[in-house]
Amino acid sequence: MNAKTLFDKIWDSHVVRSIKDGPDVLYIDRHYIHEVTSPQAFNGLKERGIPVLRPGKTIATADHNIPTKDQHLAIRDLLSRNQVERLNENCQKYGIELFGLNHPKNGIVHVIGPELGYTLPGMTIVCGDSHTSTHGAFGTIAFGIGTSEVEMVLATQCILQPKPKSMRITLEGELHKGVTSKDIVMYIISRISASGATGYFVEYAGSAISSLSMESRMTICNMSIEMGARGGLIAPDETTFEYLGKIPSIPGIENLKSSVNEWKKLQDDPDAIFDKDLKFDAGLIKPMITYGTNPGMGMAIDDSIPLSDDNGNKASASFLKSLDYMGFKPGMKLLGHPIDYVFIGSCTNGRIEDFRAFAKIIRGRKKADNITALIVPGSKKVEEQMAAEGLIELYKSAGFEVRQPGCSSCLAMNEDKIPQGKYAVSTSNRNFEGRQGPGARTLLASPLTAAAAAITGRITDPREFITEEQEVKK
Amino acid sequence: MPKVKFDTLESTCVPLPFENVDTDQIIPARFLSATSRQGFGDNLFRDWRYTKTGEKNSDFVLNNPDFTGKVLVAGKNFGSGSSREHAVWAIFDYGFRAVVSSFFADIFMNNALNNGLLPIVISDDLLKKLHALIQKNPDTKVKIDLEKQTFTIVSTGDSVNFGINPYKKECLLKGLDDIDFLLSMKSLITSYENNKSQ
User: Fold this and answer.
1) Domains in chain A, ordered, with CATH?
2) A157: chain B residues, CB-CB within 8 Å
3) Is the complex ipTM higher than 0.85?
4) Is residue B102 less than 8 Å (CB to CB) from chain A?
């Protein structure tokens, strides 16, 4: 018998039917939906006059298109309000559980799914959002889909999908102080490029991965899509089971112990072969920052912008256009460069651990006068936890105001836009042109690097603020 | 999901020779609040197509009357980033029926096929050649035959085979739809569920 990867095991056990020379019919265990990519799918069901096949397997939230201030008031933008209302109506009509705006458990779909226990090892999970890869941190096959596919899953609980190739990325060694899981994934992307894993499903392995918390693992799997991967996963282990054990009640699980025993089997066979196998040394990773307009254009924070693109092409139109947009030149250093905004939040870095990391650096200090900060928890639960730990007070005393949960400035669908030409150090996942608002210039970084920039008003190496004994294990 | 047929197409091209064009460029997030599939073409490449003050940016190819046609000739890694199907709807709504590149992002590729927008992968070298030909002569035509899976530059006779999943090819040629196909398998899906729960 052929040795199987964990990815193979989960995929193969969810194939309802294989179509000859075609895609597989893959059964979906958990379907997350949100207001932006679902309305057209529900319209499709209405036009066909068919129901949602398994409404209990779909979970909904409003996150992309909601304000992060005064959420108790009606949404001012009429189109946004209409979109959120459509979600409410559709969920009610089709019997789908909704953690909508103002629900006590509302939040970003990829933050609330795991924290409420809807994401469990061995599952297949999809959502009309590319950062669905986040859930792979629990040992799931989780990937983003388009709206036609959302309609497919609503109608049949299945999706037609060609099986991607497999890639393993192994990371061994010790992380240095001030280096977080965000830096790990940004480092990998900078090495293999924004399309380096296109066509593949990635499994992350090695001692530097298994020593990470669940939150940190989610950050890594989240950004798998930024290297082009279909998704990314990490085999479940004691850290996973401990995280799940702390959730007060997991829907559909009566006996966690016996489930854990099943989940322990979710491992690669020892001699499983991957289509591609990459290895990196965690000890070489420094705090990272991006300088261009795709997540592959990243470097160590104390480095200089390269003189040419990945292919060594100095005059590449794409490379020069990108630097021109950012207002940077080849060979330039970024340390000390003034910035205007800091954004901490998003499905990448909007979890409690991220706000604790930010707090480590701002404690006892003050926000720089030139900085406008957007501090946005990933969920109501994260917000509550921040309050319980005194972080909201701590942030306030350092001059930071904490917003209400949502996707916010990560994609700037709501009012939380970075103005034209302004620089933002952002803990989100994409530095595309205009991603945070028309003309906005995004520098992706970790919560620690964002905190250092928020205090100094400039691009700053977070290691300046971290002493040896102050271990920042992220 | 829409049922769209595709068989053959002969057209001039619109060149967009940049790499890593992500779906945020194709349709910025602030235009995603609509709840129907129509009308996104007006905002296709919005922030490249219009200036900050809302005037047409004459440097951008969609505003250059020399370049028209139903085939968008893009650069490597087209359609990366966000899974928004609105990107495909915008390209289709504008009037394109095929996109040519040396490399597409996975989700964009699926979304395109699900909407009858044909993604055609050709080699880096041929893509470069095609861009050069179009720049030199905007009347350069390409011919696409889905049944034969051939992509031809009419003026030079360069002709290559392109790949497509046979199932998707059949769907496009006949205007079939995945959901009808999946619905026809309902008993199989139910028996899968029953087996799992045992």
Assistant:
1) 6-265 (3.30.499.10), 289-465 (3.30.499.10)
2) 189, 193
3) yes
4) no
